[in-house]
Design a protein that fits this description.
It is found in: Cell membrane. The chain is mainly alpha-helical. The chain has a domain of about 40 residues. Helix content is about 75%, strand content about 0%. The radius of gyration is 24 Å and the shape is elongated. The termini are far apart.
Length: about 70
C-alpha cells in the first residue's frame, strides 16, 4: 500500500500536516524530538561508560590477546 508513495505524495502529506498544525506547533514538536534524541544518546553513552568502568573494576574487561605477528599483518 505504501510502496507507491513518491516525492509528490510526501510533499502533499507535509503540506496537509503544516496546514493542520501550523508552523509553530511543528517547530516546537521537532525541538522536543531533538531533545529526546540528545537525551537518548547521552544515556546510551553514560550506560556504556558505566559498563566499562564496572568491567575494569571487577577484572572482566576484554583484553586484546592477538599475537604480535598477527597484529603486524593488519
Amino acid at each position: 500500500m505504501l510502496n507507491n508513495i513518491g516525492l509528490p505524495g510526501l510533499l502533499l502529506i507535509a503540506v496537509v500536516v503544516l496546514v493542520l498544525f501550523g508552523r509553530g506547533k511543528i517547530s516546537s514538536l521537532m525541538g522536543e524530538v531533538g531533545k529526546g534524541i540528545t537525551a537518548f544518546k547521552k544515556g546510551v553513552k553514560d550506560g556504556s561508560e558505566d559498563d566499562e568502568a564496572a568491567e575494569i573494576a571487577d577484572g572482566t574487561a576484554a583484553r586484546n590477546v592477538t599475537p604480535e605477528a598477527e597484529k603486524e599483518k593488519a
